[in-house]
Design brief:
Elements (H helix, E strand, L loop, with lengths): L3 E6 L5 E7 L2 E8 L12 H23 L8 E7 L3 H18 L3 E5 H7 L16 E6 L4 E8 L2 E7 L5 H11 L6 H9 L22 H17 L3 H4 L1 H27 L3 E5 L6 H14 L2 E3 L10 H13 L17
Helix pairs in contact: 1-2, 3-10, 4-5, 4-6, 4-8, 5-8, 8-9
Length: 338
Amino acid sequence: MSIYILGIESSCDDTSAAVLEDTRVLSNVIANQDIHRTYGGVVPELASRAHQQNIIPVVEVAIRKAKITKKQLDAVAFTRGPGLLGSLLVGTSFSKAFAMGLNIPIIEVDHLKAHILSHFIKDKPDKKTPALPFLCLTVSGGHTQIVRVDSPSEMEVIGTTIDDAAGEAFDKAAKIMGLPYPGGPEIDKLAKSGIPDAFRFPESSMPGLNYSFSGLKTSFLYFLRDRLKEDEHFIEKHKADLAASIQKTIVNILMNKVKRAVNETGIREVAVAGGVSANSALRTAMQNAADNLGWNIYIPEFQYTTDNAAMIAIAGYFKYLSGDFASQNIAPYSKSRF
């Protein structure tokens, strides 16, 4: 008998709802909040207000697109954290009330684990899923981690950033260059017409499998500050080359640690997840590693790279199978507990 899970995602500025039948996606609806572009970043208060406006229609559309009724749902899975607390409160409160009205259980989901488990969504009959155990580079605007995955419930962070995330480095570089928000995709777009070796920036050397990106951001800022003293039009003249060069540096830093993790663990099943997994240079680097080093790689569809409720629902599905339900007095958390 099929299990129907409604997933709710509201960790940042996207309101999303999805319905899964076991591991198959029936619907995955996302409402974006374009208002934040005006401010060059997410404004938490505006985000939480927009979630309040969006969550009911988004859920209604998701259920309608799934061609089921509310009474067919077996559970509601929601993002408990990490994320913006005000945004999370909207999703958490709605999930509790919605599930209570249907007399079905609620399932709390960690946002980062959900990104990893998105690789088990069966949206295509021939889709390959990672064999256990596997390594996953989880990389976004707020987090950069290498995770060893032994099962859907057993994961261990074996490497993490000690300061800034890779996605934050992309966004900061873009902001320094005067590019619109969000900056990561703008860097990627510009880099396609630039020369990756035009400029060289220092790659951090952290012990073990940990990352650091704060030094790179500072180096990039000082580099441009000095060049602009010599030529006030330096950025405009070299925008594509700057984008390609900073992108290459960030991807190199990411991949060097992943290669080390593979060598240390002997695990050659390697996945990537999170918002930065949409970056074309990182995808190419992963494919090159697979071709040259014999890895089996798993790169998500673009629709599962950004925040979405389908990944929350798949994580909820695995928890449902083990009877791991949450209580009605559960509260969200803003910082990662993973």
